[in-house]
């Protein structure tokens, strides 16, 4: 009989015992393939959208921001209408039209409900053009014909139950416009979630750009037979001075938009693949345990194979072939499950407002190949050590049922190696806490994380002997002889217990680490707010938009407000005294700002930085460029002229609020930046008159009710908002880590199930001498609980060490408070006991159903 036939026979004979390992491979491969299909589908969706919405050639102002950037003053850069006549004269031009578009808008209904997406997709206001017919069609009504009409996209209309005749208000920096819906336009390609409204051209120019006869860009259509690249050259020749314009072909415009989205999609893709990698790592322990136990249970069979002439290599190869079969089965099922997972994610995104059509479902040939290769390679690597052990079994020892050879020397070597790795990793974590710059400590932190994790995995069997005994004293001894039996079972094979606990340890270590970091960030920011913020109320956008002038005026008119401070951010290029130049942002604020945010000054007087032609810089920037109080910096404002400003103060960067900020007064900035180019307020601060705090708070909210894109927060609101944001982020991460924890639970189930099979005769003897079914089940459940608690103790302890070291790096960025979230840690530890109970349900039930006589008579 060939090795291949033997391997297939053994695989089919033990398919039930390998089922959970196959599920672990399936889940891990599904996560990888699902991520790849989902992100590829998103890329396809955006590619089609950008290609459909781009004209053959687009002409825009050279100074216009990128597709993912908001204009500094909330008003897009524009071109004069005279450009249309110039472009129309170019050879190969079939059609020219001016377009107006802005993403610095908010659209609300009659009840002041924001029509914008909650997923981060933009709200776009534009004029309706012939180019829009490439990607949309009017499904009902008609395009706007005057200032009292507006058209909305069908997805937004469906989501907010809008119909023709309903009133919408479009809010932009140049004013508000109310109009009734005259039509609804449907996308002929997938709209990922943007809310789009269309105004007539004159209204769009006035509302979005604040001037007539200007456009944000010009759409140029080529005559039949004229290539886009040729048309672009002809248009450039017709315009003459192309230094003032940005010309893009359809492909170039689509690629530019894709690049702006690509970085976001890549971050999401690699983050999800990272969690899939964690699941694979956890699955390795499950597969190692499965094959180790299968080899142990087939000791006599392996001995017979060796006795009739099979070589070590053939035995080794037989086990590895079984691993390949397991990997192939799990991976094939995983690829199919991954496609289903991607579709499920698309439906989930649709439920929260980001529409992705299954018609765009993209399955690249590399996706199933990647899933299959990963699944098979990981499975074979995990099975290599058990296969190697199987090959070492001598025929005589196997026929005596002596099991796989115990190698005391390798145990000591493993323990020594584990101690060295753990010690080196701990030294890396300690070094992290001693550095002066966060950039220096990140390398030590990464080294410490990796080495301590590997060290704990390697040293797991040694730790199992110590920790399980300690848990036995605290937990298992309460259950008398049954508890002691469970403890001995867990200690019987420390290597197996260590591997099973390590699988759970990895997921819980990451949970504990992130919990410590998240709690410390919230505590540090809260402490910083208590020490630094001296204002009562903060006004800012939910989506990062600037505060429009009409909303700013509404804030200033609220009764009971003692002072209002405006805060603007301007892009500039700084030339330093050492001759270097840097592109930075300069904060222009009212002179009252130092009262609203108490900044520590290491040199000079911050109040003087708000004087004429004066500014401040942060301590890190000053140290980097040798800047002292009294030095002069050349500041070239992107939106205006070049200024020479004198440094009057250097502020400490030992803070998490406004770290590195450079301040000047709004009056100084206004000298070099014209009013129409001056940015809007990024944030506003308001201080109530004494005794009028409650009334002013209510009045501020009422004043900004027509502008739902802004929120009014007192300090308690701000802290809660920060806590909620970090909490939501952690919940997403915990949800992704759940896959690794599920795989770890499968590992506990599989270990117990195989252990029950391995101890069949022993269980029969125990039943024969009086152990009841109930006691047997309890013994297995307690064994499972102690293994789960062992993994939880290791994971939580390791994770808290990681989190504490990471917080020391955050302290260098101003987040100096360490907070251990004990309620979370205790909850996770207690939950681990329930995980152990859950994992033991099926193995304990199967053990309890064994026939005593058949169990005693079995060969194991």
Describe it:
The chain is of the alpha+beta class and 860 residues long. It folds into 4 domains: 58-261, no CATH class; 409-458, no CATH class; 460-534 and 715-860, no CATH class; 546-708, no CATH class. Helices cover 57% and strands 16% of the residues. The protein is built from 27 helices and 24 strands. Strands 15, 16, 17, 18, 19, 20, 21, 22, 23 and 24 form a 10-stranded mixed beta sheet that branches. Strands 4, 5, 6, 7, 8, 9, 10 and 11 form an 8-stranded mixed beta sheet that branches. Strand 16 and strand 17 form a beta hairpin. Helix 2 packs antiparallel against helix 7 (250-297), helix 2 (15-53) packs antiparallel against helix 10 and helix 7 (250-297) packs parallel to helix 22. It is globular and about 95 Å long. The model is unreliable at 401-406 (pLDDT under 50). Keywords: Cell membrane, Membrane, Transmembrane, Transmembrane helix. This is ABC transporter permease.
Number of strands: 24
Helix content: 55-70%
Largest sheet: 10 strands, mixed
Shape: globular
Q: What's the end-to-end separation, in Å?
A: 25 Å
Mean pLDDT figure: 85
How many individual domains? 4
Structural class: alpha+beta
Low-confidence stretches: 401-406
Chart the SSEs and their pairings.
Blueprint: H1 3-13, H2 15-53, E1 57-61, E2 79-80, H3 82-88, E3 93-99, E4 101-102, E5 106-109, E6 123-127, E7 136-141, E8 149-153, H4 154-159, E9 167-172, E10 175-187, E11 195-199, H5 201-209, E12 214-215, E13 217-222, H6 228-239, E14 245-249, H7 250-297, H8 299-307, H9 312-351, H10 366-392, H11 395-399, H12 408-432, H13 438-458, H14 460-474, H15 480-492, H16 494-532, E15 537-541, H17 549-556, E16 561-575, E17 581-589, H18 593-596, E18 601-604, E19 614-618, H19 619-625, E20 632-637, E21 642-651, E22 663-665, H20 666-672, E23 683-688, H21 693-703, E24 710-714, H22 715-758, H23 760-768, H24 773-811, H25 822-839, H26 841-848, H27 852-857
Parallel strand pairs: 6-11, 8-10, 17-22, 19-21
Antiparallel strand pairs: 1-13, 1-14, 2-12, 3-13, 4-6, 5-9, 7-10, 8-11, 9-10, 15-23, 15-24, 16-17, 16-20, 16-23, 18-21, 20-21
Helix pairs in contact: 1-9, 2-7, 2-9, 2-10, 2-22, 3-6, 7-10, 7-16, 7-22, 9-10, 12-13, 13-24, 14-15, 14-16, 14-24, 15-24, 16-22, 16-24, 22-26, 24-25, 24-26
Family: Belongs to the ABC-4 integral membrane protein family.
Subcellular location: Cell membrane
Protein name: ABC transporter permease
């Amino acid at each position: 009989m060939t090795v291949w036939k033997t391997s297939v026979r053994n695989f089919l004979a033990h398919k039930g015992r390998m089922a959970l390992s196959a599920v672990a491979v399936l889940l891990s491969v599904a996560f990888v393939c699902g991520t790849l299909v989902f992100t590829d589908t998103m890329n396809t969706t955006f590619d089609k959208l950008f290609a459909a919405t781009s004209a053959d050639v687009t002409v825009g102002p050279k100074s216009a921001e990128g597709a993912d950037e908001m204009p500094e003053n909330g008003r897009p850069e524009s071109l004069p209408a005279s450009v249309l006549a110039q472009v129309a004269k170019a050879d190969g031009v079939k059609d020219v039209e001016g377009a107006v578009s802005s993403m610095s808008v908010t659209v609300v209904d009659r009840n002041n409900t924001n029509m914008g997406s909650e997923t981060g997709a933009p709200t776009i206001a534009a004029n309706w053009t012939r180019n829009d017919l490439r990607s949309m069609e009017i499904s009902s009504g008609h395009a706007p014909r005057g200032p009292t009409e507006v058209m909305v996209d069908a997805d937004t209309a469906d989501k907010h139950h809008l119909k023709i005749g309903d009133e919408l208000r479009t809010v932009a920096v140049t004013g508000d416009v109310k109009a009734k819906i005259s039509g609804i336009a449907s996308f002929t390609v997938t709209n990922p979630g943007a809310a789009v409204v269309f105004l007539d051209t004159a209204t769009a120019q006035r509302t979005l750009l604040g001037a007539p006869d200007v456009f944000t860009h010009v759409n140029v259509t080529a005559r039949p037979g004229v290539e886009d690249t040729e048309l672009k050259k002809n248009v450039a020749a017709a315009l003459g001075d192309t230094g003032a314009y940005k010309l893009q072909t359809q492909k170039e415009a689509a690629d530019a938009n894709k690049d702006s989205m690509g970085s976001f999609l890549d971050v999401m893709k690699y983050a999800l693949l990272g969690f899939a990698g964690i699941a694979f790592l956890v699955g390795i322990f499950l597969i190692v345990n499965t094959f180790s136990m299968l080899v142990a249970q087939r000791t006599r069979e392996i001995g017979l194979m060796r006795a009739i002439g099979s070589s070590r290599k053939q035995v080794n190869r037989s086990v590895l072939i079984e691993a390949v079969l397991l990997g192939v089965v799990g991976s094939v099922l995983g690829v199919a499950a991954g496609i289903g997972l991607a579709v499920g994610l698309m439906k989930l995104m649709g439920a929260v407002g980001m529409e992705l059509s299954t018609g765009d479902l993209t399955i690249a040939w590399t996706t199933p190949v990647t899933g299959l290769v990963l699944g098979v390679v990981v499975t074979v690597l995990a099975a290599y050590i058990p296969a190697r052990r199987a090959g070492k079994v001598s025929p005589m020892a196997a026929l005596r049922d002596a099991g796989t050879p115990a190698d005391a020397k390798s145990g000591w070597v493993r323990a020594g190696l584990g101690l060295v790795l753990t010690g080196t990793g701990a030294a890396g974590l300690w070094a992290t806490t001693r550095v002066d710059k966060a950039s220096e400590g990140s390398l030590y932190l990464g080294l410490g994380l990796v080495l301590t994790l590997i060290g704990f995995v390697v040293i797991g069997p040694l730790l199992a002997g110590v920790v399980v005994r300690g848990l036995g004293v605290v937990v298992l001894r309460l259950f008398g002889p049954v508890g002691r039996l469970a403890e001995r079972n867990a200690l019987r094979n420390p290597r197996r217990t260590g591997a099973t606990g390590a699988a759970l340890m990895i997921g819980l270590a990451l949970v504990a680490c992130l919990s410590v970091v998240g709690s410390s960030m919230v505590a540090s920011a809260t402490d910083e707010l208590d020490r630094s913020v001296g204002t009562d109320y903060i006004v800012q956008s939910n989506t990062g938009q600037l505060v429009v002038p009409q909303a700013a005026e509404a804030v200033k008119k609220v009764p009971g407000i003692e002072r209002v401070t405006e805060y603007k951010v301007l892009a500039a290029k700084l030339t330093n005294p050492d001759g270097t130049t840097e592109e930075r942002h300069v904060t222009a604020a009212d002179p009252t700002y130092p009262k609203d945010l108490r900044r520590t000054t290491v040199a000079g007087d911050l109040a003087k930085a708000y004087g004429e032609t004066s500014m401040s810089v942060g301590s890190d920037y000053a140290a980097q460029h040798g800047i002292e109080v009294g030095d002069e910096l050349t500041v070239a404002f992107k939106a205006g002229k070049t200024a020479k400003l004198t440094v009057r103060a250097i502020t400490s960067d030992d803070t998490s609020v406004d770290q590195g900020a450079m301040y000047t007064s709004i009056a100084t900035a206004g000298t070099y930046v014209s009013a129409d180019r001056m940015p809007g307020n990024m944030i506003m601060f308001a201080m109530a008159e004494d005794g009028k705090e409650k009334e002013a708070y209510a009045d501020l909210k009422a004043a900004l009710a027509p502008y739902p894109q802004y929120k009014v927060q007192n300090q308690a609101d701000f802290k809660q908002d920060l806590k909620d944001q970090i909490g939501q982020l952690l919940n997403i991460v915990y949800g992704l880590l759940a896959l690794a924890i599920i795989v770890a639970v499968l590992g506990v189930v599989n270990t117990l199930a195989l252990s029950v099979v391995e101890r069949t005769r022993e269980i029969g003897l125990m039943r024969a001498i009086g152990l009841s079914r109930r006691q047997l089940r309890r013994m297995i459940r307690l064994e499972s609980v102690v293994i789960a608690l062992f993994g939880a103790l290791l994971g939580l302890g390791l994770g808290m060490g990681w989190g504490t070291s990471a917080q020391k790096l955050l302290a260098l960025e101003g987040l100096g408070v360490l907070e251990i979230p004990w309620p979370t840690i205790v909850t996770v530890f207690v939950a681990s006991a329930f995980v152990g109970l859950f994992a033991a349900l099926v193995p304990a039930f199967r053990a309890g159903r064994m026939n005593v006589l058949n169990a005693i008579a079995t060969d194991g």
